[in-house]
Fold this sequence. Notes:
Layout (H helix, E strand, L loop, with lengths): L1 H15 L4 H24 L3 E7 L4 H11 L4 E5 L2 H9 L5 E5 L3 H7 L6 E3 L5 H35 L5 H16 L20 H16 L1 H13 L2 H7 L4 H29 L9 H25 L3 H18 L11 H7 L3 H15 L3 H25 L4
Parallel strand pairs: 1-2, 1-3
Antiparallel strand pairs: 3-4
Amino acid sequence: MRHAWHITAKELLQNRRDGLAALFTLVLPVIFTVFLGIIFGGIESSTLPLAIADADGSAAAQQLVQQLEESPLLELEVAEPGDIDKDVRDQKVAGGLVIPAGFGAALDEGRPISLTYIRVETSSGAQSVWQAVEVVVSRSNARLLAARAAAEQVSIKTGRPLDDALLASAASVTDAQLAAPAITVEMTDSGSSSATMAAGFDQSSSGSMVNWVLFSLLGIAAGVVWERRRGLLQRLSIAGVKGREIVGGKMLAMVIITFLQQLLLVLVGQLVFGVDYFNSPLALLLTMVSLSMLAASFGLLISAVFRSEQAVIATTVISAQLLAALGGAWFPLEITGASFSRAAHFLPSAWVMDSLHGIILRDWGLTRVLYPMGIVWIWIAALFVLAVWRFRPD
């Protein structure tokens, strides 16, 4: 394999002299990481903004606002009634709630009154906010109706007038009872879920790394076609260099180049963007080596099958982008349907993304990534065998 080492050294030296290599290896991946991280950053927020306009100002209205503020899903933003509709249309908030004038008086008199909720119909966030508001309003309804019913029963049985004092006393008793409900739900943790969704830089950093490493296979594929067209590979064959040595040497160079690319992107992600890549160094190392081997073997197969540079470039770009997009590098597969996710896991890139997200988000160790990486290595072995079988120096 002495010839293979010489070919590897030549490829590394040639790549180091390429002025565009740094652009595609580090600069563009970092730019895309920042850009996509900002886009996916909106998913990271655990609260949704609700604009609220209190046109009543009564104690009952203020109490309702306080209860809404206690909701873990809602982030309240005070607004004027005339501004809410525009804020919702411009998607500055997920929804808007207007407490009308006379709200408190209606409750005191036992009259029904409606709140106005404003939303954009196609917004999923608006539906979540509506459900949170419904929970708070339903709880307030239960309290008010229970207190009034209790006060009316006391008034009927004792002959005491149904005045504010009696209603206040009944409300106090109702609050005390609701504070200690007859039925409660106890929460038990069953461990971390494998369905935890990556967001922000956790998604963009790992996704950009997979996307650009797969895109890097263009370099080795186009290089092989260029050398074949100029007779350089045939000269190596005439000199006694075997096809498997040529393939092995070029593949090793590609593995080294893409591994160094990953290492730089991992360090940027960890130190600059706070992505927890080093939760398990051994699992990360296996995943990075597997991704480099996958890109190199796939690139070599493309160069072995196609003869023209145009065909190689078109096939490489399309294949790399499809592997990245369908494999979850562009967006988390968790936001897609179950059928799409199952189909995506036919591709090795989806298993690579699973391992990276598992390491970053769920503290996966080496044993947890063995299964997904085992599937990736089946792909690597198949692609490499096909590349060696199809490779021709002329």
